[in-house]
Amino acid sequence: MLIARKLSFDIRLKDLYCRIVTLKVTYFNMKSITRSQSVEPTNKAEYIYKTASAMLDKIEKRPIRLVGITVSNFSDKPYLQMSLFDTGVDDRKDKLNDAMMKLQLRYGKGIVKTVNELRAEKRFEEE
After folding, report:
1. Is the pLDDT of residue 127 over 70?
2. Are 100 and 45 in contact (CB under 8 A)?
3. Are 101 and 64 in contact (CB under 8 A)?
4. Residue 76 falls in which region: left (phi positive, over 0), alpha (psi -120 to 50) or beta
5. Global pTM value
6. What is the rounded distance in angstroms from the CA atom of residue 1 to the CA atom of residue 115?
7. What pLDDT digit, counting tens, does each position of 5-57 carry?
8. Residue, of 103 and 70, whose pLDDT is higher
9. Alpha carbon distances (Å) from 89 to 18, 42, 65, 86
10. Taking 90 as the threshold, does the pLDDT of residue 73 lie above it?
11. Cβ(117)–Cβ(2) under 8 Å?
12. Contact 41/77 with Cβ under 8 angstroms?
């Protein structure tokens, strides 16, 4: 989640949306593989993370040395598909993400974190 959050922050600063999420995995023997997936244009960390996680679930299960996520094929428009059953949840998440970004720009990136980010950091500290 931490990589996805940083990528989201960086592309949101430039008011861009990515169309491709790429996962790069380096195994313990230094063999690397990459997997890419086209997505609807997004700059949301949750969507980038879920896409990368889904790709990670599909690869061979063996010891991993390094995992990386990149985004590419940028657009300045989201081209979102409208839903008949829009619940407004995404609007609230967008407002929350905007508020978090403003706080991070003003006080630093570490000033505000999501629960998922705190859990990820805790996992790193335990290892």
Report:
1. no
2. no
3. no
4. alpha
5. 0.72
6. 10
7. 889 989 998 999 999 999 999 999 999 999 999 999 999 888 999 999 999 99
8. 70
9. 21, 16, 37, 8
10. yes
11. yes
12. yes
Top-level CATH class of 2-126?
alpha beta
Mean pLDDT of the chain: 84
Place of tokens 């879920």: 50
Find where tokens 């706080």 sit: 103
Domain residue limits, the chain: 2-126
Of the candidates 81, 67, 72, the one whose C-alpha atom is nearest the C-alpha of residue 20 is 72
Q: How many CA atoms lie within 13 A of 7 on its CB side?
A: 26
Judge residue 48's burial from the number of C-beta atoms within 10 Å of its C-beta, 0-12 exposed, 13-18 middle, 19 or more buried. buried
Phi-psi region for residue 73, left (φ > 0), alpha (ψ -120 to 50) or beta? left
Q: What type of residue is 9?
A: F
